[in-house]
Amino acid sequence: MAADGADLGGEARLIDAMAAPQSRILDAGCGPGRTSAVLYERGHHVVGVDVDPVLIEAARADHPGPRWIVGDLAHLDLAAVGEPDPFDAAVMAGNVMVYVAPGTEIQVLSRVRAHLKPDGFLVVGFHTERFDVDQFDGHVPAAGFILEHRFSTWDLRPWTSSADFCVSVLRNPRGVDHV
Description:
Layout: H1 10-18, E1 24-28, H2 34-41, E2 45-50, H3 53-62, E3 67-70, E4 87-92, H4 96-99, H5 105-113, E5 116-127, H6 133-142, E6 146-151, E7 165-171
Parallel strand pairs: 1-2, 1-4, 2-3, 4-5
Antiparallel strand pairs: 5-7, 6-7
């Protein structure tokens, strides 16, 4: 894809621009680690989590530096595996919401939120033909997040209801402690 000119670092650039230097960032549903690797190269402390051990092994082989953890986002408990500190930010790129087990979407968002600092943020991207935006919008407050911004691309093009992609910035409200 890179050889064809695809922008493989766009998600990471957006998160990097939003986060303070040297932030703790959770890549929830990291796959083979493409986004985590770019964030790590930009000086962030990054933990990538994916349920697929094959993808985590690929991330470890291709991108040393970030911490790679095999884990189910619906039952995420990073303190149990040596990552007790809350994160400044989290990202769910690559259609993660499409791939979580049906019916666990609120639980997944809630578990990610539980690992964020108060006022931390999560950025979620997905194709709108693969996951319903209105359904997602119902999950956001149910998981305790506030929808802060919405765009149609990772390079912040304006949102329209006819967009084929959705990038949502969710905020963990102040005063909500790390769980």
